[in-house]
Amino acid sequence: MLVGRACGVPIDALAITSRKRSPLVPDLPTMEEAGVPGYEMVGWNGVFIPKGTPDDIAGKLHAALVTVLGSTAVKEQMGGLGAEAIGNPQGEFAAFVKAESARWGAIIREKAFQDDRFKAGSDEPKERSNRYREGVREAVASLLDPFQPDNDEASRLANPAPERGSPPS
């Protein structure tokens, strides 16, 4: 959705990938509500501090972060990016990180590097990566194509006429 917004392209979203509806788009159903049970994939960020940081310092830092994340300005700015400021309790966030690590770790162990082409000495990963990059470039180019100026306009923009009174280059 964000790419569409940034490019000014109208996009019809089908569902949100979190388990709960977002207050940013409250009418958008979850994947579960749209008929895909058990699907959840969310992007998230967190603030981590070194192990052994005294509890009083960790508490003060957490309180300050919750205050900042709860401010109207931060909520509006993050909402404009399609993100939601949460600032959940430390224990809740620690449990979330642990669960995410277990979940994605299991998926990575189950799915990743099972393919013989990824063994040492194979050029397949590099070739696959190059094909993927090229595919992404083509997809982005095709998405942006309607927004590209016609050839005459592109030529004019690439080779602007010198300003009056400036020496020729």
Explain this structure to me?
The protein is built from six helices and no strands. It has a domain at 1-42. It is extended and about 50 Å long. Mean pLDDT is 76; it is low at 147-158. The chain is mostly helical. It has helices at 2-7, 55-69, 72-80, 90-111, 124-144, 151-158. 48% of the residues lie in helices and 0% in strands.
CA-based shape: extended
> What is the helical fraction, as a range of percent?
40-55%
Q: What summary fits the major beta sheet?
A: none
Identify low-pLDDT runs. Answer: 147-158
Q: Report the sheet-strand fraction.
A: under 5%
Overall pLDDT confidence: 76
Q: Could you tell me the radius of gyration in angstroms?
A: 24 Å
Structural class category: mainly alpha
How far apart lie the N and C ends? 44 Å
Number of strands: 0
Q: How many helix segments?
A: 6
H/E topology pattern? HHHHHH
